[in-house]
Amino acid sequence: MTMTGTTTPTTPSTADTAAAPTTTTASPTSPTSSTSSTSPRPVHLAVYDTYADWETGHTTAHLTQRGHQVRTVGAAAGAPVTTMGGVRIQPDLALADLAPGDSSLLILTGASLWDSGDELAPFAAKAREFLAAGVPVAAICGATAGLAREGLLDAYAHTSAAAAYLAHQPGYAGGGRYVEADAVTDGDLITAGPTEPVAFAREVFARLDVYGPEVLDAWYRLFHDSDASAFPVLMAAAERGDA
Prior knowledge:
There is one protein chain. By secondary structure, the chain is α/β, with parallel strands linked by helices. It is 28% helix and 14% strand. It has 7 helices and 10 strands. The chain has helices spanning 57-65, 121-132, 142-149, 163-167, 197-207, 213-225, 230-240; strands at 6-7, 43-46, 70-74, 81-82, 88-89, 93-94, 105-108, 137-140, 183-186, 189-192. The strands form 2 sheets. An 8-stranded mixed sheet has the order 1-9-10-8-7-2-3-6, with helices on both faces. The chain has a two-stranded antiparallel sheet with strand order 4-5. Helix 1 (57-65) packs parallel to helix 5, helix 5 packs antiparallel against helix 6 (213-225) and helix 6 crosses helix 7. 46% of the residues are buried.
């Protein structure tokens, strides 16, 4: 299935020469697939002070509706954080206790703290652990800057708020792999800019096999484009148990 604005190169080594945007769906036999005979491992949402509430709302809500458990992970399990919207969240577990093998996906959302110092650097370091273990990471907005400083964007096609935003990040050498797109999936790494929470969700759903291609396309058209023609497709899928 082809979706405008999404780039999915076949390998990191050719990411900077990727052509027309496409979306790749994980294999049905993937251990993170929602169609697996066993329950998928939890999806972990990183939470920290100034976390941008709106950037992952579609992602977490629809993952939960499709049977994925979403668990929050913070610097310390017993230390509540306050989002940019003033919502207080007490993390389910501490970052140090999170192992890639216990997760289907790590989501890193934007936050003012990504741009004001290195307080969130441990979350980028955890993303390195996940990618090294072959477990997907999805980063949006300022979290992409944290990954850039960690050197994690240099080998993957990626996007962000703007190429210039990443170019100013110390340690970033991935400018040749930057893609002007709403969201980009390259292997186990998903990235998106701050204005694309729906496209970000779409890429997560594709990577985890949350919806089949036709349903995913309809979901995106409804929530991103307000395309009324997508609604009957989703209703029919819901009656089949596919949405």
